[in-house]
Each structure stands twice: as structure tokens, then as C-alpha cells.
């Protein structure tokens, strides 16, 4: 295996980690916090609240670095088309995440704790969840496209 293919494989691995983490969050975490905010938001609050941003802030730059490196290494190969599709889609996902998903998640999860559910917050959390599931499905589709590029040779 040459260096170019190894870097491409690592790019796929890191992008798959993003897909897997998104799937995990949507199965195990999001349904819990979005059920009845602000009462259901306690997992994010307090001294021992979960901190998923530490993972996301690490994985995205590393994945971008691998994608850009792979694009440079594979620019004159048949893999370029698959890389460009995955990279372009990923950039759009990151932009939408920065513009809507992160600010809205911060706004929702930092609401002061209360024992009673707030209908408006529950509706906002539900919309966030639906849109985030769509985003996750797109990410998984981009991962498949990225993997198809592995099947192409120089």
C-alpha cells in the first residue's frame, strides 16, 4: 500500500468516526435531552455535565486536514471526483453546523434548569433533532461516496 492510499484510507476512517459519533448521539443522547427541555437538559449542566464539543472540536480539524491532504495527493487520479463530492458536502455541513446547529444547541442546552417542560423549547429541540437527522443522513451518504473513491485506481 502506498502513502497516497494510506492517507485516503485514514481520511475515510476519520470521516466514518464522524458518521458513527453522529449516529450514536442520535440514538443515545439526543432523544434524552430533547424529550422535555429544560427538565431533560440536566445531562449538560453542572460540574459533571457531558461535554460533546471536546470530541467535535478535535475530530473536524483532523478530518479536514486529512481530506485536504488526500485531495492534493489524489488530484490527478480517478479518486478526485469522489473526494471533491465528499469534501464539498462536508464543507456545506460544517457551514450549516456553525450557522444553525451549534448556536441553537448552545441556546437550548444552556437554558436554566427547571422541573417543568417548556413547550416552545421542546418544539425547538424537536426541529433541531429532525434537521440534525437529515444532516447525519447526508454525512453518511458522503461517507459512502468517499469509500467509493477507494475502489478507483490511478
Ends apart, CA distance between termini: 13 Å
**What is the C-alpha radius of gyration, as a whole number of Å?**
18 Å
**Uncertain runs:** none
The pLDDT mean sits at 94
Total separate domains:
1
Strand content: under 5%
Helix content class: over 70%
Structural class: mainly alpha
H/E element order: HHHH
Shape: elongated
Helix tally equals: 4
Count the E strands: 0
How would you characterize the largest beta sheet?
Answer: none
Question: How would you explain this protein's 3D organization?
Answer:
With about 150 residues, the chain is an all-alpha fold. The chain has one domain (about 5-150). Helices cover about 75% and strands about 0% of the residues. The protein is elongated and about 60 Å long.
SSE order and pairing:
Blueprint: H1 3-33, H2 53-73, H3 80-109, H4 119-150
Helix pairs in contact: 1-2, 1-4, 2-3, 3-4
Summarize the structure.
With 154 residues, the protein is mainly α.
Which key features would you list for this structure?
about 150 residues; elongated
Amino acid at each position: 500500500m502506498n502513502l497516497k492510499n494510506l492517507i485516503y484510507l485514514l481520511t475515510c476512517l476519520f470521516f466514518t468516526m464522524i458518521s458513527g459519533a453522529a449516529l450514536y448521539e442520535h440514538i443515545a443522547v439526543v432523544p434524552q435531552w430533547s424529550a422535555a427541555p429544560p427538565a431533560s437538559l440536566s445531562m449538560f449542566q453542572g460540574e459533571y455535565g457531558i461535554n460533546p464539543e471536546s470530541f467535535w472540536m478535535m475530530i473536524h480539524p483532523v478530518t479536514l486536514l486529512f481530506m485536504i491532504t488526500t485531495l492534493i495527493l489524489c488530484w490527478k487520479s480517478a479518486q478526485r471526483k469522489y473526494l471533491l463530492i465528499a469534501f464539498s458536502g462536508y464543507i456545506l455541513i460544517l457551514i450549516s453546523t456553525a450557522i444553525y446547529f451549534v448556536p441553537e444547541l448552545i441556546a437550548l442546552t444552556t437554558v436554566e434548569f427547571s422541573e417543568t417542560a417548556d413547550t416552545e423549547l421542546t418544539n425547538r429541540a424537536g426541529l433541531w433533532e429532525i434537521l440534525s437527522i437529515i444532516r447525519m443522513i447526508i454525512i453518511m451518504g458522503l461517507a459512502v461516496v468517499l469509500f467509493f473513491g477507494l475502489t478507483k485506481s490511478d
